Every structure is written in structure tokens, then in C-alpha cells.
Amino acid sequence: MLEKTVAELSVALKAKKVSSVELTQGFLDRISKYRDLNAFISLDPERSLAQARAADARLATGQAGPLTGIPIAQKDIFCADGWLTTCGSKMLSNFVAPYDATVIERFNAAGAVCLGKTNMDEFAMGSSNETSFYGPVKNPWDTQAVPGGSSGGSAAAVAARLAPAATGTDTGGSIRQPAALTGITGIKPSYGRVSRYGMIAFASSLDQGGPMTRTAEDAALLLNAMCGFDVRDSTSVDQPVPDFSAGLNSSIKGLKIGLPKEYFGAGLSADVAKVVEAAIAEYRKLGAEVVEVSLPNSQLAIPCYYVLAPAEASSNLARFDGVRYGHRAPEYKDLSDMYCKSRAQGFGAEVKRRILIGTYVLSAGYYDAYYLQAQRLRRLITDDFNRAFEKCDVIMGPTTPTTAFNLGAKKDDPVAMYLSDIYTISVNLAGLPGMSIPAGFGADNRPVGLQLIGKYFDEARLLNAAHQYQQATDWHKKSPKGFA
């Protein structure tokens, strides 16, 4: 059962070939066996098994949905009632959420089982899952390598078959980049498609939740549950949600694929380029047409992002002051001293760096020079995509410039770390949907991801294109040695 996809497990559950309790216990045992991966922050077997028993009762009535009884790992950025919700930070190491995020509510309504909360970069700030207060996650393909971040725990859990599916969040590539580095499928929906209510905020104009699975078919099933308007989230878009599973088997003959010339220049490693080119050739065999497009301002995405995201983070993280919840310094002289010491002790180095940058660019005298200028660049990046989509239906290219790097290799070089998101960040700045699917392996036998970028609210087309590729190839079926 561990090798089965969500879609296959759903069929097995309905056919009574396995119970949700058996399935959940099997994954809990596997998580315990591979604890060294450090993919999970918290588990509550009693609570998970209680949900599984309720799912089995629901399955017995014949009223079950596609996700009823399916164990799903949740990134520890989503509040879940009664669950420790840390956001990978010492600041929230004692915070038990008193309510459910909308995403959690919707999975509960679908009858899914919460398997546990996965490890992540602190407050989703990182590209390697090394900034977590709970220690780094290891990549199951090579435990000397990073799994990517910030959703590295979710990615490693799905890749190592510790969970059939997981949730992630993507602010600058944090679903797609770890999906690429661990050989799984991950999709970031259009901004506003998935409610952010109860998802602890990093950068409010960029954050978006999405699924991390082994296949596009499974991603469609999870998106069906996750998407939809939420009156409690002011950034939620009141847009009809299609059945993302309905068009998966449609032919992609005549699909116009845009290849941005800027994605295939200096900085892209030769082994990754070779895999991506082979994937594009496979799409040609499936009947797709390839055209060259240009995204001339994409090289400005990283400086633009690292002004806007820290600015929003400095505002969002101001609430963590040691007064209402979270870490409070054990000793202090007065209120001001308590604020200073609580934040100094509670936040890690990367979070502090981004708060300082964000506060600086929003300060008097620098707001116009940095923040407003970055917003203008964001508009130019968005306009580039709009022009490109006049010539094509989907944009494709590498998800990351290299395969997974070793643990510690970039930890002391923030700029080198930030460059690992060079192909993903612009998608968040424009609010577009994007996904990564496994497409092969690099020279070091570590996974390579192919990135697909779509028009606004055109997730169904991305999923269709990804599914057709996965029907013709078997990269998504590969398991890391020792975890099969």
C-alpha cells in the first residue's frame, strides 16, 4: 500500500481492501522507522487514528469522497485545532492552535486523516529546510543533501513514502523547489485560489498553499478539496472552482509551450538543462508545439522579491512579541526589554535578517527608493508573462538551476541560497499558477524537476499537461533507494 498513489488508495479503501486505520497505522510506523529524516515536527497517533476510525465509519455508509480515509501530512504552518503549530520556530514551540485553518477544515470535511505536522524552514523563510528550529530535513534520495525548502519536510515525507500526500506553501517557490529536489509533484495555485485563513503569514501578497503528491492526478484530487472562496480571507478570490480531475485525460495535441530564453542561459547546470530538454522533446512527441518566448525582467525577480517579501514579513512578524502567545524571555527588566529579549531568543538568524531588511526598506527615506521601486519591477515582471501568454498556453523550463545541494553548502552564503529560487520567484510575484513534476536525474543521480507555468486560474491545463507527461513516462514512479 505504501507505493500506491492517493487515487489508488481511495479505490482500495472503498473496495475494503484496506481500512483507514490500517493505512494510518502503517504510515505512522514508517514515520517512526525513518525518524532520522527529520521530516515531521509533531505527531499525535491517538488523534490521527481517531480520525481514521471516523473515516472507516463513513466509508461503511457508502457516503465517502475521494479523500475519505486518506492520511495527509500537513505543513506545520497551518493551524490545526489541538495540534502543536510551530512554524518551525522556537517562537511558537509551545503554541497549540485553538482553531483550524480553512485548508484543515476542508480536509476534515472531506474525511481525510491528519497524519502529523511536517518540518519546515522557520516561518517559511529558506530554500533548504536548514533554518528550522527543529533541525534540517534530509533528502531521502541522498541524506547528505537538502530536500529544498521551505516545505522540505512535506517533500521528504512524500518522496520517502512516509505519507501519500502532504500540504505545502509557496511564497517564492517553496512547494515547487522542494518538489523538484525530491522527485515529486507539487503545484502552487493562482494567488487567492486557496484560502490563507489560519496559514501563518510570511508575505501576505505572495503566500499560497498547495498540494505535494507523487502524481498530477493526486494533486488534482487534493486541489479539489483545498480550493474555494473564503469570506474570512480578504485575499481569497471568489472564482468558480472546476473539477481539476475532469480534464486530466484530454489530449494535449496542439498545446503551445513557451520556452523562455532567459531560463536556459548562464546559471543553469548542464545536467539539469539536458533533462529539461528531454522532457520538452517528450511533449513534442505528445503533439505539443514549442515556441520561444521572452521574460526580459525575470533576472530582476530575486532583488525585487527580497525587498517585498522581507517588507511584508517585518510587518507580519511584529505580532510575535512575547505578550499574547509564543516564546517569552524568562528574565527581563521591563516591557521593552521583554520585547527585545523574547524576539532575540525566539527568532533564528534568517528570520532576523529578513525582519531587519524589511524594516529598513519600509523606513522613512528608503520607502520610495526600495519598496516602491520593487513594486514597479513586480508590474514589469507580470507584464512580461502577459505578453508571453499571447504566444503560448503554458510556459515550461527548469524548476531549479541545479539538483539538490549538500547540507551546509550554502548556509553561510544567503545570496547563493536565494539564487536557488531564481526560476520560481517570478511566478509568485505575478500571482500565476506553477507546478513542478519529476523529469529525470542529474549527473549526481539526484532528481530534476520540470516547471510548468500557467495563465491565471488555469490550473486545470497545467494538471492536464503534467498528467499526460506522466502517462508517457515513469519518473514519478521512481523511489529513493532504501525507502521503496
Mean pLDDT comes to 97
User: Radius of gyration over alpha carbons?
Assistant: 21 Å
Helix segment count? 15
Main beta-sheet strand count, sense and barrel state? 8 strands, mixed
- Overall SS class: alpha/beta
Strand proportion, as a percent range, falls in 5-15%
Helix content: 25-40%
- Mass-distribution shape: globular
End-to-end Cα distance = 11 Å
Instruction: Tell me the series of helices and strands, N- to C-terminal.
Output: HHEHEHEHEHEEHEHEHHHHEHHEEH
**Multimeric organization:** single chain
User: Using DSSP, what is the number of strands?
Assistant: 11
Give the strand line-up of the largest sheet: 4-6-5-10-11-9-7-8
Query: Low-confidence runs (pLDDT<50, min 5 residues)?
Result: none
Please provide a written account of the structure.
The strands form two sheets. An eight-stranded mixed sheet has the order 4-6-5-10-11-9-7-8. Strands 1-3-2 form a three-stranded mixed sheet, sandwiched between helices. The chain starts with 5 loop residues before the first helix and ends in a 12-residue tail after the last helix. It has helices spanning 6-14, 20-33, 45-60, 102-110, 152-159, 176-182, 216-226, 270-285, 301-316, 335-346, 349-362, 367-388, 414-418, 425-430, 459-472, and strands at residues 40-42, 71-75, 113-118, 166-169, 185-188, 209-213, 256-260, 289-293, 394-398, 434-441, 447-453. With 484 residues, it is an alpha/beta fold. Helix 2 (20-33) runs antiparallel to helix 3 (45-60), helix 7 (216-226) packs antiparallel against helix 15 and helix 9 packs across helix 11. The model has no long low-confidence stretch (mean pLDDT 97). The radius of gyration is 21 Å and the shape is globular. A hairpin with a 5-residue loop joins strand 10 (434-441) and strand 11 (447-453).
